[in-house]
Structure formats: C-alpha cells, structure tokens
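Ligand: magnesium ion. Inputs:
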Amino acid sequence: MKITDVKCAILGNNPVVRIVTDAGVSGYGEVESYKSYLKPQVLHYKQYILGEDPTDVERVMLKIRHRGSFKPWGSAVSAIEMALWDIAGKAAGLPVYKLLGGKVRDRVRVYNGAVRFPMDGHAPADYADTMAKMKAAPEGFTIIKQGIGFHGPMPRTVPDFFYGDPGGGGHGDYNRGLLTERGLAHVVACVAAMKEVLGDAIGLALDCGPGRTVPDASRLARALEPLHVLWLEDLITGDYTPYVNADVYREVTRSSSTPIHTGEQMYLRQNFKELIERHAVNIIGPDPCDVGGIAELKWVAEYADLHGILMAPHGTGDG
Ligand SMILES: [Mg+2]
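Predicted complex:
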C-alpha cells in the first residue's frame, strides 16, 4: 500500500486530515477547533510522505516528526499520525488499540473540561453556582476541572489580584507576577466554595496558570492540602508555553502533598524525559493531538508508569 495524497479540509473550525492510498483506503485525523490556521502546515508534510506505506506508521513518522514542535505546532504531525493508524487499523481489520497492544480496561474515567456554563462573576459564590450546574449536568461527571487564577479572567476581574499588568492576551498568554495576599486568599476561598458544593463524591481538579511564581505556587498547594483537590495544573508553564521548566516544577511538587500536574502543550516523548525522571510532577497531562499522536502518547504513558507518575491525558478543545 502507498500514500498517494494528503488532503486537509476545514470542517467547522477543525482541520480534518485525509491520507489517501492506492488501495482505496483513506485514513482520517482531526485537529482541534482552535487551530484552523494549521491547514498549510498539514499540507506542507505531504511532500515528505508521498509513496510511503502508511501501515509502517513509525517509518512514516520519522520523515515528519522533527518538523513539529510544542502546541500548537505539534497538532498537524499528531493528526497525520492518527490518520496513519486509522489506515493501519482498516488494513488489518482491527481497532487501532489492538495494534497498540490491546485494551486494559473496558471503561475509562473522564473529567469535565469542556461543559461550561456562563458565570456572573468570579467571586466564591459564582464558582459555587457553576459547580452546582456541572454537578447536575446529565453527563454525570465524577471529576470536574475548573480554571482559576491566571487560567481565566481573575487577574482582570478581581481588584488588586497580583503585582503585574492584567493585560488582555490570548489563551495561554504568559501573564505572571506575585499574587497579593488578597489575591491568594481569593483563590483559596473560591476553591473552598467549589468543594463545599461537590463534597467528596465529585473530584475537583484546578487549571491554575501558567504564570505562578514558585512561592505563590507552593503557598497555594499547601493551603489547599485539607481540600483534597485532584491536581493543580500548569502552575508554572503550560498551555502554549514552548518549554517545560522541570526543575522549577520539582521545587513546587516537593513543597506539599497536593498533586502537581502539567504537560498539555508538550511535544514528543523526549521533552517528558526530565519531567518524569526527576519526578518533577505527580501527574502528566499530554494531549494525543499535540504530543505527536496516539503511539507517542503511549510511549510517554509507559515511561511515566515506570516512574510512578500518573497520567490524565488532555482532550481536544483545549479542555
Ligand atoms: Mg490546561
């Protein structure tokens, strides 16, 4: 079997990749809706993989993997990887998980990172209110992830929140600065209000940054210890930050028993090496659609497991 064409259509806002073969089989992969601008990048890779056997997934990936990078620039590579697996599965007459070693469990617990309700403000009562709505949602989520602090409008809407310029950059902008005492207390009060609603039946994870300083990150992690949150995500770097800062994360992780999490923007297994080997976080969150694809995610997952580090994969849609 040979690759004869690579196409990309924008459906809604999502770039959808189609790899065409001479065997009448096509493979499909999708990039999240925030990244319609990646279509030219997808098509750029066509020249490197035409004529290759798409069922030799790793061999094809070696031709383009080095031409991607951290989020958002790993998405096109990841979508092509998934389209290749789609062809490999169809050619074998098997679901792709069978080609990757088979399944381990029949059900997977997921968290709510996308079902959202408009909030009236960013006071503790507003966070309690939105948690009550999510708790009542028909999906029956057992984990909810909520943005707080720098991950959301709090720096702009809470007066005197931090020592810095609230600005108005796009999602994941590297806004940062020391929190005021009032700012930190506000965050803790909001988390306490959410936990009050959720109780111990629904887990609460918090997307926190990026942009915290080490003292603020440690103070927050220690202050939240009694509330048993599932994890604090992206305190230092994350989202669209094109680097990791594993040594800084390690310092934060060592400072409390609250689980620390990062990794959604990261590309390739090699960039997880230091984070995992140094036990710099407790949980990693690679996104299969940013890290380089399904098999890339499995590499990272197995290496993390060898080191006693948990994984909560990020989902599409910037969840
Ligand atoms: Mg996140």
